[in-house]
Amino acid sequence: MTSPPPCPSLWPLDAPSGLLLRAPTLASMKRVGRQPRQSRLELRFSLYAILLLAISSVLGNEAPTLRRSKVVGAAALRLRGASSGVAGETPTSDAIHVADDEDEPVEDYDLVVIGGGSGGLACAQEAARLGKKVAVCDFVRPSPAGSSWGLGGTCVNVGCIPKKLMHQAALLGAAVRDARAYGWETTAEDSPLDHSWPALVQGVQMHIKSQNFGYRSALMTADVEYINSFATLQEGGKEVLCRDGDGEVRRLRARAVVVATGGRPRYLDKIPGGRDLVISSDDLFSLPKAPGKTLCIGGGYIALECAGLLHGLGMDAHVMVRSRPLREFDCHMGDLVAERMASLGVKFLHKAVPVAIERAPGDGGRLRVTWKDMSQGPSGEHHTDEYDTVLVAVGRRAETKGMGLEDVGVELHPASGKIVTGEDEATSVPGVYAIGDVAHGRPELTPAAIQAGKLLARRLFGDSNEVMDYTNVPTTVFTPLEYACVGLSEDQANQQLGEDAVEVYHTYFRPLEWALPHGPENACYAKVICDRTRDMKVVGLHILGPGAGEMMQGFAVAVKLGVTKTDIDATVGIHPTNAENVMDMTVTKRSGVDPRKQGC
Questions:
Q1: What pTM value is reported for the model?
Q2: Residue 363 confidence (pLDDT) above 90
Q3: Where is average pLDDT lowest: 5-14, 152-161, 254-263, 266-275?
Q4: Following DSSP, what letter does each residue of 67-84 receive, concatenated?
Q5: Which pLDDT value is given to residue 190?
Q6: Helix, strand, or coil here: 273?
Q7: What is the pLDDT of residues 504-561, one digit of tens each?
Q8: 493: burial class by Cβ within 10 Å (0-12, 13-18, 19+)?
Q9: How far is Cα 83 from Cα 287, in angstroms, rounded to an integer?
């Protein structure tokens, strides 16, 4: 592929490591008489060059390197093969150092958003749509294993998007095996399917790169300035100090500051090897080689999703659970999810706590994990096994370290370390707000952060008074058999309403698609939780089955609008579908009747 057309502000150099376009510093702009804000036309030139070189990289050609120019400087972009994001170079935390910033001029903005994830970007773009001057500061600290990424936050880079794509890859493998029952001539019944982990990772990472590029382009179109720097609050929260990986400093003053920095995985810092020998979900989706026999430590949705997709891709997956699976969800549903995963071949270590992780003897690169069996109490026996990879998924912590939040008076919750906010997302400091995973008590869900960000921008700069409603927010766990829910769990309903006021309708079912491959009977399950004191209003709905997330999105609208069991009964189901099982539930838990189904 040919190089980009000659341009006085862009030229190829001899370094083959990739594309580097860095924003000119304030000092360099002073030297050439430029203003800090670049023109959109110049950014278009830079992004055009990135697109051409990205295509060249996909086609296998070596991309030329573009170095800083005094004429054009698109803000901090680097493209290195298939492993880094086009959204920006991520300087390491070690690169942040104190610089003499007292002489830096203060730049005024209507809004400064700290954090380039889904919620922060939505807030920034909505404010820009309302005609305000907006900047987004984004900085990613590399994981202990060295992983970093571009603009877009956890969801796009190391969360929902790569997870769902790999989940789909696992489902396709199962579908190929089932296809024999439908007359398709595939591989022999007992022979394993061949799967290329590197090919999957390359496809996933290229899709992520396109998303990174799309976010940068959207910011440019909306006239939102992107600053690839670590942001610290100062002057009572009225100013933001931005320092990039080279120590270059900018000072921003804003009418409003929104913190949307999200969270990062916790590690097992109290045991040997619990940080330096493990990976997390920050690293899994970009591993250059298949993880092999993998131990996922944790019982939450991240651990179960990762174990499920790895097993579906042909790997030996183990899950170490301290208490119970999916304890933040409905207790019964969590047990059903784990039971289904175990029936497929995922191995569970229940009531187990890791004690040490160390390198196994030999040159095979394996890890030896020692854990304690807590089923007999604190003095349980120790057990060991060896794994190719250990993935830690024991929760997430708020990304607030070093931002100066407490110095300016922002209150952090003592237990979670997250920012305490009111219903309007306001913190304890006037003019400083927080949305998304970094805010205490908020659901750690991308769509919720996006909606909260948009509504906040409209309240700050529009004529809206609407606040985010965090009740009845639906979600899905993408385990091999998906689990989706909206509203209260059964335990929550009993606690809030009292057991006498709660009626639970439930049913087991088998998808028709499982009939020819002889899938298990009654492996899927659904239940509707109703309030008997309010005309059987539905307060919770839970589904375990294929495509549960797609079904739940529609039911969530009904629950949000106050649907009752009578309304559901009056709705004609679509036959034959899995969703119709919600429409014809007649058996209650109170009755004690077996809810398992026979026939269609």
A1: 0.85
A2: no
A3: 5-14
A4: ---SS---SSEEE-TTTS
A5: 63
A6: coil
A7: 999 999 999 999 999 999 999 999 999 999 999 999 999 999 999 999 999 999 999 9
A8: buried
A9: 9
> Catalytic residue at 383?
no
For residue 422, which of 414, 408, 407, 434 has the smallest C-alpha distance?
434
Cα–Cα distances in angstroms (integers) from residue 135 to residues 108, 231, 571, in the given order:
10, 11, 48
Q: Is residue 491 within 8 Å of 330, Cβ to Cβ? A: yes
- pLDDT(98) > 60: no
Using alpha carbons, list the distances in angstroms from residue 254 to 33, 111, 228, 545.
24, 5, 18, 48
Cα-based angle 514, 517, 523 (whole degrees, multiple of 5): 40
Instruction: Give the pLDDT of residue 188.
Output: 63
Burial of 592: CB neighbours in 10 Å, binned 0-12, 13-18, 19+: exposed
Query: CA–CA separation, 546 vs 479, rounded Å?
Result: 10
389-392/502-509 β-pairing: unpaired
Find out whether 389 and 295 touch, Cβ atoms under 8 Å: yes
What totals of helices (H) and strands (E) does the chain contain, helices first?
A: 14, 25
Identify the active-site residue in 167, 332, 413, 575.
575
Q: Tell me the DSSP string of 40-52.
A: HHHHHHHHHHHHH
233-260 average pLDDT score? 96
